[in-house]
Amino acid sequence: MMQPASEQFRIIADGAAEILPEEELIAKLERSVRERRPLVVKLGCDPSRPDLHLGHAVVLHKLRQFQELGHEAVLIIGDFTATIGDPSGRSHTRPQLSLEETRQNARTYVEQATKVLLPERLQIRFNSEWLETITLRQLITLTAQCTVAQMLEREDFARRYAQGEPIGLHEFLYPLAQALDSVAIRADIELGGTDQRFNLLMGRHIQRFSGQEPQCLVLMPLLEGTDGTEKMSKSAGNYIALTDPPEEMFGKLMSIPDSLIVRYFRLAAFASEEEARQLEEELRRGHCHPRDAKAMVASRIVAFYHGEEAARWAAEEFDRVFKYHQLPSNIPEIVLPSTELPVVELLVQAGLVSSRSEARRHIQQGAVRIDGERIQDWTARIGLERERIVAVGKRRVARIRHG
């Protein structure tokens, strides 16, 4: 049996940045309870990047709450719209992908999304199902519902236009295509981050044009990355992936600025408003040390994705390395064919860094040690006639030998 509409609204509003329009959502919930009909709740995902992080989990968790309230959760895989490229928040045109690439990424996306969502209560749809068959006549009719002036109300489009940056006509089609997703499934509610506000409002506009009752929007905050400034993203390198091993996830969480402890507790650990307020007060009064608060938040997040036992082990491993200055307990062994390598090449071939420029940066920052000795010369050559323990920072460590 469904909970009363007022209680459902309280749960839905908890943690949301904005609900548009509130009165319409309340009316939809009341009708849903009265008719015993679940609402169709839509979340569109862009499979251009298959790796999900804690920032994505903020909106995924809100969709899970709708699942738990008994509503119908629909995950729209934008395999077709990814071939256009979502321009939201970007200062340049996003590269287009092939359908083959987007569908491959989509498989990984769904596997990771169900770490948060309840798979048995999830409907998955690919928007190529309805977008691939659109005719030119239908496209012209659709584009006639929106003016260029309306499109330039989008902050990113307006900025790029003012700065003389190119905007492809195909980019104007992205919000319209996403809106058609809402029409195709007759969405009652659409979820998204605050950066998706324009696209989701376009969904309301096109639904109304199509003779449907327009969807309501639930917009979620954007989570800052580990640097504490930019929003979490893979391109910024400040992300914590849902697939990160427990010890790596825990370590990254322990590195966030103190100013983000409560925000991560609220958005990434899914704490209630009351829990978050209590932690904030304890930190303000000095009753809880920031390090202890971070460890609590990190443990809660790791436990959600990996289980309680993995969270305890990750906390112990963190203390072993950072508190007691010992080597990690599980150090991978890597065998390389060369007997001697430049240190930069050694780090790249061992997979400890992703590029030579990253290797040089870590060396210049004093973060690279070999057999406990700091390497400061990025032109140094390292012999592998015996096993070497190579560390980049304290979390990336490997035993490397020639073989």
Give the number of domains. Answer: 3
Global Rg: 24 Å
Helix content: 40-55%
Instruction: Please give the number of β-strands.
Output: 13
Full CATH superfamily name of the largest domain:
HUPs
Low-confidence stretches: none
Number of helices: 17
State the CATH architecture of the largest domain. Answer: 3-Layer(aba) Sandwich
CATH class categorisation of the largest domain: Alpha Beta
Which H/E pattern describes the elements? HEHEHEHEHHHHHEHEHHHHHEEHHEEEEE
Order of strands across the biggest sheet? 1-6-5-2-3-4
Q: What structural class results from the helix and strand content?
A: alpha/beta
The biggest sheet, with number of strands, parallel, antiparallel or mixed sense and barrel status, is: 6 strands, mixed
Gap from first CA to last CA: 64 Å
Beta-strand share of residues:
5-15%
Assign the CATH topology of the largest domain. Answer: Rossmann fold
What is the general shape? globular
Mean pLDDT: 92
Describe the structure.
The protein has 17 helices and 13 strands. It has helices at 5-13, 22-35, 54-68, 99-113, 128-131, 136-143, 148-151, 155-162, 169-185, 197-209, 246-254, 261-267, 273-285, 290-306, 308-323, 343-349, 356-364; strands spanning 18-20, 40-45, 72-77, 122-126, 189-193, 216-220, 333-336, 340-342, 368-370, 373-374, 381-383, 388-392, 396-402. It starts with a helix and ends with a strand. The protein is of the alpha/beta class. It is 46% helix and 14% strand. It is globular and about 75 Å long. It folds into 3 domains: 5-220, Rossmann fold; 246-323, Tyrosyl-Transfer RNA Synthetase; 333-402, Roll (Structural Genomics Hypothetical 15.5 Kd Protein In mrcA-pckA Intergenic Region, Chain A), CATH 3.10.290. The relative contact order is 0.09. A hairpin with a 3-residue loop joins strand 12 (388-392) and strand 13. The strands form 3 sheets. A 6-stranded mixed sheet has the order 1-6-5-2-3-4, with helices on both faces. Helix 11 (246-254) packs across helix 15 and helix 14 crosses helix 15 (308-323).
